[in-house]
Predict the structure.
Amino acid sequence: MIDKSELKPIKIDDLIRLGRDNDGGYIIPKIILEKCDGLLSFGINKDWSFEKDFSNYDNILNVHCYDHTLNFLSLFKHTLKSVFMSIIRLLTFDRIRLKKSIEGIGCIYDYITFFQKNIIHIKRKISDNNNEINISVLKTLQKIISNGSKHIFIKMDIEGDEFSALNQFINSKKLVLGFAIEFHDINVRSKEFNDLIKKIKRNYYIAHIHGNNYSKVDQESGFPSSIELTFIVKNLIKESTVLSNFRYPIDGLDQPNRHSRPDIILKF
């Protein structure tokens, strides 16, 4: 069973949300944006709204996005699907889904205009090794540092591969400013998850937690199988720390990933 006591965030007052409404947005401490000059994003699929918001800060020199599944064909298929779904949403008066479908129609243009100059998409799979297809977190860190960024934040949503990729990175003792990570199958992989969280917390605090309501809630732990965790490196917190007294999800900040279902209340 997952160790819920290890997952309670510390109290941080300057949390902000970046990215689109519902699925695709993440909560991070504002101090990270003030100190950061580079973003590594692992797993973007067809949504780079978080990366867009992040890149709007003047101090961000580089944004490197890694996703081996994203290409012109996948974008073209998404465009056709979005056209069809826009008609369906219009006929069923589904305003929220209609908005997202309309946004999907312009994904090719949005891709071409966003990924330019210092904002790049690299078609490699995040892993714990390096070859023609795979690339490790350490290797991506070396690349963005060679391009001039020194203070890095990492966003990661790689459908279960986070365990092996993060273990290799954490064991290297390299430090970044923080992470926003979606962990998958945490109840099934509870021992592996607990061990990894303890390793990460040697150098990082948990700044925020949110349950993904697309995933199934485990009856024993009361936690969903997928959760989003934000970490901040300890040396960015100068004052003494106390555990948060917020209720999670945080009203006015968090949003349900699936808008048609209630958000999942997390009890520690």
Remarks:
- The longest helix spans residues 72-91.
- The chain has a mean pLDDT of 94.
- The domain at 4-70+123-236 is CATH 3.40.50 (Rossmann fold).
